[in-house]
Design a protein that fits this description.
This protein is an all-beta fold. Helix content is about 0%, strand content about 45%. The relative contact order is 0.26.
Length: about 120
């Protein structure tokens, strides 16, 4: 089987984030299995939005296709950056101008309180 997904296709749904129900973050499942926390998805973040604070129980990688993304520690990513985060890492991110990401997980994530970072 083959799956082809595009950012201009329909099928994006609002990402449910604990404690951030109003953030304009959208995702489209490509191969992500919520039970195992493994797989890939496309993600759109509107200008001025942020992700929830979370810890990775497995590695996470993402590719910034367009826009900007800044982690809670001030580290900024830009279009063309491929990022690898190890299991046990924790963070949250925000975008000033909005961004498009391809995200790959190899383990579950867990929401945490912002002060725990």
């Amino acid at each position: 089987m083959r799956t082809v997904s595009r950012f201009d296709d329909t099928g994006f749904v609002r990402m449910q984030m604990k404690d951030l129900p109003d953030e304009q973050v959208w995702w489209k499942n490509v191969s992500f299995d919520q039970d195992t926390g493994q797989g890939s998805y496309l993600m759109k973040m509107a200008p001025g939005t942020r992700s929830n604070p979370h810890i990775h129980h497995g590695p996470e990688e993402f590719f910034v296709l367009e826009g900007d993304l800044t982690d809670h520690d001030g580290f900024s990513y830009r279009s063309g950056d491929f990022v690898s985060l190890t299991a046990g890492s924790s963070h949250f991110s925000h975008t000033k101008s909005g961004c498009l990401l391809v995200v790959m997980h190899r383990g579950a994530t867990e929401s945490i309180l912002e002060g725990v970072l």
